[in-house]
Design brief:
The chain has 127 residues and is mostly helical. It is 74% helix and 0% strand. The chain is built from eight helices and no strands. It is flat, with a radius of gyration of 17 Å.
């Protein structure tokens, strides 16, 4: 990994933390309850905590497998992660469409900007 890719990746981690904090602070979960379609199947907080943690951990294991394989296999999880830079823009688009603040809107404007740098560096690594 090049130093520039590592810097972009670290910046993206920081942006994800800031975005998560903004969404929690502005109660995104109250604005889009249908986003959590699986919630109707989870009856208790401990049950939800269990499944959310384990689903995240299982996904992490798949990503870790590809990263450990090395070579071109690392581009599978890095490419999947790269889609986040453009899917998070939905916060900004909903805010613009509604002509008012929407939870997560402020930090979501930064995702596509950082995403361009991420993909430029990822393509450099691929070559």
């Amino acid at each position: 990994m090049t130093n520039s890719f590592q810097v972009v990746f670290l910046l993206s981690m920081l942006l994800n933390y800031l975005h998560g904090a903004e969404c929690i602070a502005t109660k995104f979960y109250e604005k889009e309850p249908h986003f959590y379609f699986f919630a109707r199947y989870l009856k208790t907080i401990p049950q939800a905590t269990y499944f959310v943690f384990h689903a995240s951990f299982w996904l992490f294991l798949v990503m870790a497998f590809f990263l450990l394989r090395g070579g071109n296999w690392i581009f599978i999880p890095l490419g999947l992660y790269g889609t986040v830079f453009f899917t998070e823009l939905h916060h900004a688009l909903k805010g613009i469409r509604r002509m008012k603040y929407y939870p997560g809107m402020i930090t979501s404007f930064l995702f596509p900007i950082l995403g361009v740098f991420y993909w430029i560096e990822l393509v450099k690594l691929w070559q």
